[in-house]
Amino acid sequence: MLNTEIVDDKSINEDSYDGLVSLIEATQGVLSLLIASCKPGDFPTQIINRYEAELAPNIPCYRVVLNQKEPSLRSGLEQLVKDNPELKAPQALAAITVTGTEALREFVSQADSNHRSELSRFFGYLQWTREGLREFPFPIVLWVTPNILSRLSLEAPDFWSWRSGVFRFVSPAVPETGVVNQTGESSLLIELERRLSLPLDELLEQVENLEQQAMETPALATIYNRVANTYANRVKTRQAQDYSQEIDRAIHFFDKSLALQEKFNLPQAQSDTLLQLGDIYRDLGLWERVFDLYQQSLEIARNLKDRLREAAALGSLGNLYQQYPQGDRANSLERAIAFYTAAFSVYTRDTFPEDWAATQNNLANAYTYRIRGERADNLEMAIASYTAALTVYTPEAFPEDWAMTQHNLGEAYRNRIRGEKAENIEVAIASYTAALSVLTCDAFPEYWAGTQNNLGIAYYNRIRGEKAENIEVAIASHTAALSVLTRDAFPEYWAMTQNNLANAYRNRIRGEKAENIELAIASYTNALEVYTRDTFPFEWAGTQNNLANAYRERIRGEKAQNIELAIASYTNALEVYTRDTFPFEWAMTQNNLATAYRERIRGEKAQNIELAKKCYENALTVRTREAFPQEYTETLFNLGNLDRSNQ
Fold first, then answer.
1. DSSP letters spanning 567-609
2. Last residue of a domain, one of 173, 196, 231
3. How far apart are CA 293 and CA 313, in angstroms?
């Protein structure tokens, strides 16, 4: 999810197989040196049998096994032609497979007067073979081990420079056994040569070779798709050297892949590629283009009655509506929930556990931000879906997905309405802490910082434990987050964390009270550098209210001036917090402003009392006994004190 995407062995092998077959077909009539790499065993033979069966009868296939004592590629080919004179015919077609390198020995026999190993002789013959191979105008597939492949460019650079393509295959893992090694430690016999998908330069090399031959094949469509995905992943994982250029190249190759898929009537591949291209446009915010691509994919899947691809398209549409920033936000979220729910008709925990878990997580996100329905109900459904996802996402099998879901579950519990508040916060803290075991600062700095910030909020609101210690932990967490969330790199998150840090300092128990309030004022002021009235009106108003509270409580400076600053900030907040748009926040700020007027030193006392009374009365129009009993009691008490002090 967050790092370079690991492709499974099957995808790697299909990548290589498609490219290899395409080049064999495309390079008939010319010398083409194709290098295939795999560990020794039955698997390379299976691959050879497969492509020979696919090429037959149009392209005759031949095999050469290198002589172990004199491992000359040229000599082996000469013997093949001698034994099969039809290969000398003009415009003869052929695919020649060369094996035997896996049997070459590295050590030098004492009886060998040349003092060169079989492998050294192989490299020597290969280096001086290139020109002599011109008489064999065929694609020649040379099978080597990964070890030999790693040495080819150094030991036989001249031959290496003539290669038309390199194709890596990964043997299936050997089933786990209880084998114990000589040291007495249990070990598993597993295939160690797991690697990323083919490097970009090798994929582009395959594309260039095929395009030079003007050979349009379904396999070329697959390679175009692999190149496009490689560029897209480079951008996603921030490996791209030029973001804009590599995005354009990803789109370019996806378009080329779609054109060939349509030409060769490959609807299943087309459905997949439409979703992949749509994901790029979604990241770019080109929403209408995304709708069109996802809908096309869904229509193809439904026409094919391909339930699995239909579910994938439904999930993508759910993601789109959840992120769609335009139109009716409430309606968009409802549609997202509907699409995710529909996908569960295919994605079950038993048949497609990973897809099921991902959809559960996405559905939970939609419920978390849902506008319609009861907020308490929505959070309960979110918690249920996050919890369901965690039955598949384990820290061993899916560490990143597990950690992100733990983080999201922590958010849901932190905001939970039902249940015991103290217990909900404890669960949130446990979930954030679990997430941080994977989301470390070194591996995932942004996610680590975000989780640290949210953990700080949870500790700030914690009910259990010592209050003073909880606030210290909150301060430490927010401060840690700011080591990554800088103003230049993440201005919005920097401002949010500054505001949270200020809240912790304003309510800090340890340390000098006067100094803590000064630190709070400094952090609120920092936040307002980014939270402006125009760009972040709601956040600006909230920070203005918090800053006003800090000025009211300030110990340093002139008391009268501090209260004037508080009144000014509360008044600022009320420019955004109106009774119609944000009634709860408006009433809260009216209550606070009333208190500031009650404490005011400057101005006429009687007028200040009247202003305070008016603000308390305003607050009570929202803070009613039925709607907000606790806040109602607080404001009523303040108003009563005001009346008594004025008698």
1. HHHHHHHTTT--TTT-HHHHHHHHHHHHHHHHH--SS-HHHHH
2. 173
3. 10
